[in-house]
Amino acid sequence: MLDVAAVVAQVHGLSEERLMVWVEEGLVRPVRQEGVLAFAEVDVARLRLLVTLESDLEVERDTVPMVVDLLDQIHGLRRALRTLGEAVARQPAAVRDDIRATVVALQRTDGSPVDVEDEG
User: Fold this and answer.
1) Residues 38, 28: contact at Cβ < 8 Å?
2) Which class does domain 4-89 fall in?
3) With 70 as the cut, is the pLDDT of residue 117 above it?
4) Pfam families recorded for this chain (predicted)?
5) Residue 31: strand, helix, or coil
6) How many whole angstroms separate alpha carbon 58 and alpha carbon 52?
7) SS3 of 37, please?
8) Model's pTM, two decimal places?
């Protein structure tokens, strides 16, 4: 775990002031250890993303929370899909084949592209 000074030293382009704003806005959620903010490596990675969005990509400060929220949703959906895929993979072959056929049929119905590899 890192304190504020260590995080600011590690994340290029990050000021203590901006860090504290992001903490107050809830974009980064450090824990408190003995009354001091402590940042995990995942917090440091998120701070690098925030700096990249604002500085390198010039995303407006008011828009950053929405972008981060959308990225969080994407990551959550990817985790859910991975879990679903693992659950399907644990099913008997006949069940997996039925699921595959159902997915293909639904894709054809709603106009989604059909992956030919998965059809067979």
Assistant:
1) no
2) mainly alpha
3) no
4) MerR_2 (PF13591)
5) strand
6) 8
7) strand
8) 0.73
